[in-house]
Amino acid sequence: MSETCVLTIKEKKMMDAGIKAKKDISKFLSAENIEQINLEVNLDSKLSKFFFSNLILAKAIRNGVYNNFFFQYPAYSAFIEDKVAYFIKKYHSQANFFIIIHDVESLRLFRNAEFKNREINFFNQSAGLIVHNDKMKQWLLNNGVKVEMVSLEAFDYDNPQPLNSITNQKWSICFAGNLKKATFIKKLDLKHELYIYGSRVKKVVGNVRYCGRLDPDILPKYLRQSFGLIWDGTSLNQCDGVFGEYLKYNNPHKMSLYLSSGLPVIVWKQAAVADFVEKNQVGITINRLSDLDEILDKLSIDDYRQLKENVVKIAKGMRNGVYIKRAVKNLLALEKA
């Protein structure tokens, strides 16, 4: 039996796209002989959360014989999350409790002092965190996290589809994600075609092409464009609003979708992942979407082919879980040091 396990709690009604990153982490770490505890919960009532926590969760944790627990956070219930920490300490007092962060909710949907204090205190109950990147790490340090932290750099992506190998100079762009909050699309007037994937939109204009909503494992097959776009909010001049501001700290999962599919990315220069894109030369960073046509017009086929070559190297790593495997290894090494 492995001495390490990953605990993943899924809300029963959550769509596959919402759980994709957690499923992939579980799969990639399973390949390293790390055991998995996968549980489902109905978050609709306090009663269901109470019974889940004190019966199903407690039993699953109690029955394991592990030295290291990695919990995929958040579980979208503070009550359940607190019970995870409580039962691990109760039944495995000598074990290490680590957290793999998918979202910092006090940076995203719950930006108030009370929630932030609760979330930081929860993180500090752990022996260490796997965070998205160094920007997120610095914010957590500045706001009171005292435990060890390791940067993931990028989410891996289990991608069964062939890599996009298109290199013609008729540049096109794709955008996949929550189209309801990507209201900047309504204002976008590009001469280059933009193909959008996600929940149905009432109306598209100009060179925008709506392509439907697809399963995250199928979607890469249809991403035959030149670039994948990472942008959020209402504005063409910057990423704004709650989700635009969040881009300064998080690793958007769509970056991994694009790169693992063989597509270079276009991303806001102030986004946290702009550092990753520039360091690995796997895309273009921009200040404003209004500059995009001009930037693409100046892009040579040789420069694009170099981007594609760099993307293929990153894609192969993402498809094999290289980032999460390295982060887990590094965090365990820090704990033993």
UniProtKB/TrEMBL annotation:
InterPro entries attached to this UniProt entry: Gtf3_C (IPR058592), Gtf3_N (IPR058591)
Assigned keywords, A-Z: Transferase
Record has Signal as a keyword: no
Matching Pfam families: Gtf3_C, Gtf3_N
Residue stretches in coiled coil: none
Domain Glucosyltransferase 3-like C-terminal: 173-330
Top-level taxonomic group: Bacteria
Domain Glucosyltransferase 3-like N-terminal: 8-153
The protein, known as: Beta-1,6-galactofuranosyltransferase
Organism this protein belongs to: Liquorilactobacillus vini DSM 20605
